[in-house]
Amino acid sequence: MMPNAGFSVIVLAGDRGPGDPLAAAGGVAGKVLVEISGKPMLTYVMEAVSKFVVDGRILIVCRNGPAYLEAADVGRDYKLIEPASGPAASALAALEHLESDVPVLLVTGDHPLLQPAWLEQFASTARDSGADAVVGLVDHARIVERFPSSRRTRYRFSDVSVCGTNLFFFASSHGRRIVEYWYAFEADRKKPWRIVRRLGLWNLLRYLIGALSLAGALESLSRRSGVRLEAVMVNAPEAAVDVDSPADLALATEIIDERKQNQS
User: Fold this and answer.
1) CA triplet 248, 84, 25: central angle to 5 degrees?
2) Residues 33 and 110: beta-carbon distance below 8 Å
């Protein structure tokens, strides 16, 4: 059996519409429709996901509009879910359409650099961990080495500094319970100390003085949520580059153009 057999994938692409600065600058209906080298960001994501999924399902959370449907169409069947009030609510809405025992990967539509190989590495390692839910991370040192001028949201622990990848794994319905905690974290996702504060005052103090390890933070959150959480370090520093700003867009464009040159 292939390592990625049996996985289903949810693509969160419910963006802020034409009011998003990147969408406005690009003259499109939403951020995930912004084009990079002649193709919408969402199309890159759907291409990567379609190459990864073997016998599972693809669910995409996005608006039911012609531009979105065209960008999502890469020749694979998928189920469209209307966006809810925010990413966490949208994820929960999509999860309701999947059987409780199906392993699920969650990705985002503003991650145009996404590669099937990253999904395969993350998915197989996450499933082998035995955890209920897993988050993908990248070592910040590798990002600095690869992209010295790029600024990413950074979580500093005593043993490692990491950045997120917008890759998440849920082993079953029990692991999906962590999405309910996501509501409380959404507003603080760019403020790491506020997220750590939710683990308790003692852990916040340890984090602020650099004494809280990544494993310690995951253990504390696992106890509070009742869901066993783990982290998987994704090998590619590019996995930390989602597109939230003009600088991110310029970097993603540079990388995609570089990939095309290497393939030619």
Assistant:
1) 30
2) no
Task: Please check the confidence at residue 234 and state whether its pLDDT lies above 90.
Answer: yes
Q: How far is CA 224 from CA 11, 172, 200, 220, 233, in A?
A: 27, 19, 10, 6, 23
pLDDT, residue 189, reads 55
- Contact by Cβ (8 Å): 15, 30: yes
Residue 32 neighbours by CB under 8 Å, 6+ apart: 13, 15, 40, 41, 42, 45, 62, 68, 71, 109, 110
Q: What are phi and psi of 155, to 5 degrees?
A: -110, 115
- Going by C-beta distance under 8 Å and a sequence separation of 6 or more, which residues neighbour residue 10? 59, 60, 61, 91, 94, 95, 98, 104, 105, 106, 107
pLDDT in tens, 159-180: 899 999 999 999 988 888 888 7
Q: How confident is the model at residue 225 (pLDDT cuts 50, 70, 90)?
A: confident
The Cα–Cα gap between 172 and 197 comes to 27
Q: What is the pLDDT of residue 1?
A: 42
What does pLDDT average to over the chain?
88
**The pairing of beta strand 133-139 with beta strand 161-170:** antiparallel
**Structural domains in the chain, sorted by start:** 8-138+163-189+227-243 (3.90.550.10)
Closest CA to 122 of 3, 248, 243, 203: 3
Give the number of other Cβ atoms within 10 Å of residue 85's Cβ: 10
Q: How far is CA 214 from the centre of its chain?
A: 19
Indicate the Cα dihedral angle 118, 244, 96, 79, nearest 10°. Answer: -80
d(C-alpha 32, C-alpha 30), whole Å: 6
Please give the pLDDT value at position 196. 60
Are the beta carbons of 44 and 58 closer than 8 angstroms?
A: no
